[in-house]
Amino acid sequence: MGPTLANYDALWLLAALVPLGVACAAWALQMSCGFCSVEPPEFWHAVTTVVLIAVANCVLRLGLQMTGSAYGMGPQYLIPALATSAVIAMALPTTPFSAMTITVVQIALCVLIYFGLAWLQELIVTSFMML
Question: Which residue ranges run through the membrane (predicted)?
Fold first, then answer.
């Protein structure tokens, strides 16, 4: 078995990967705005919006856990998507329907980025194992 992310120090891993994840999510927000014919925000505005989305979803997750309502498809997927759309609708000059479309496209782009990075990591680990 090759090296995995579990073999590294968690603090250094967070320090390296959190800014990369925020930057990728901000880029995905810009691309999804362009895809949905909405004026894309500048990069730092997109970063601020992504951080606001993360904070809103953390508060939402905490509230759902404290009330015991965190189980099921609604609290796991639909309510965070609606919260994300609400933050996008407030942070960008767009309508709620366009914000929901931007959210769906952003989720798809982030999934592609995640699977692309996971594939790249496995490719690198496999190539080192073959040496």
Answer: 44-64, 76-93, 99-120
Full DSSP string of 17-84: HHHHHHHHHHHHHHHHHHHTTSPPPPHHHHHHHHHHHHHHHHHHHHHHHHHT---SHIIIIIHHHHHH
pTM to 2 decimal places: 0.80
- Rounded CA separation 14/54 (Å): 15
> In the 8-state DSSP scheme, what is residue 124?
H
| Sequence ranges of the domains in the chain | 5-130
Over residues 18-51, the pLDDT tens digits come to: 898 899 899 999 999 999 888 999 999 999 999 9
Alpha carbons 10 and 32: distance in angstroms, whole number:
31
CA 52, CA 99: separation in Å to the nearest integer?
Answer: 15
Q: What is the pLDDT of residues 46-94, one digit of tens each?
A: 999 999 999 999 998 888 888 887 687 777 778 889 999 999 999 999 9
